[in-house]
Amino acid sequence: MMRYRNGNICPACLTLYTNVIEHQKTEHHIYPKRFFKGRGGKIEMCRTCHNELEKLIPQKTQLAKERYWSILKRFFKKKNPKYKFPQLNMKDINN
Ligand SMILES: [Zn+2]
Ligand SMILES: [Zn+2]
Predict the structure, then answer these.
(1) Per-domain boundaries in the chain
(2) 91 to each of 40, 44, 65, 70, 94, how far by Cα in Å?
(3) How confident is the model at residue 4, as a pLDDT?
(4) How far, in Å, is the centroid of ligand 2 from the Cα of 66?
(5) Which helix (DSSP H) or strand (DSSP E) does residue 27 occupy?
(6) Taking the model in full, what pTM does it have?
(7) Which ligand is nearest to the CA of 79?
(8) How far is the CA of 72 from the centre of ligand 2 (A)?
(9) DSSP state of 2
(10) How far is the CA of 58 from the centre of ligand 1 (A)?
(11) Which ligand has an atom closest to residue 75 CA?
(12) Which long-range contacts (CB under 8 A, 24 or more apart) does 32-38 make?
């Protein structure tokens, strides 16, 4: 399972993780846990960005795996265009 980390800085808003709730480090399951039972990769980001990202992901409808990656990519493109989003191969998608 892939785990994408960016040290002590949120890769989306580039603020340092702290213990302040808004900037706490969280892990986003690339494929929603409610549908995929924790399978697939995770990516770290702060609580605020994580909340923003979750708003882009349908709550009740399950999407094809590729769609979750495109939502994530689009999110980073908007938040931090310089972020080098990991190159994906089919193995990552299907993991
Ligand atoms: Zn952030
Ligand atoms: Zn999440």
Answers:
(1) 3-84
(2) 10, 20, 12, 16, 5
(3) 85
(4) 16
(5) strand 25-29
(6) 0.89
(7) 1
(8) 10
(9) -
(10) 20
(11) 1
(12) 32/57, 32/62, 32/68, 35/62
The Å distance, Cα 27 to ligand 1 centre, comes to: 11
Please give the DSSP secondary-structure letter assigned to residue 33: H
* Number of the ligand closest to the Cα of 24: 1
For 40, 75, 92, the CA distances from 81, given in Å and listed in that order, are 24, 9, 22
Q: How far is the CA of 16 from the centre of ligand 1 (A)?
A: 8
Ligand 1 center–CA 68 separation, angstroms = 18
Which residue shows structure tokens 């399951």? Answer: 29
Report the first-to-last Cα separation within the chain, whole angstroms: 6
pLDDT in tens, the chain (95 residues): 788 888 999 999 999 999 999 999 999 999 999 999 988 889 999 999 999 999 999 999 999 999 999 999 999 999 999 988 766 666 666 65
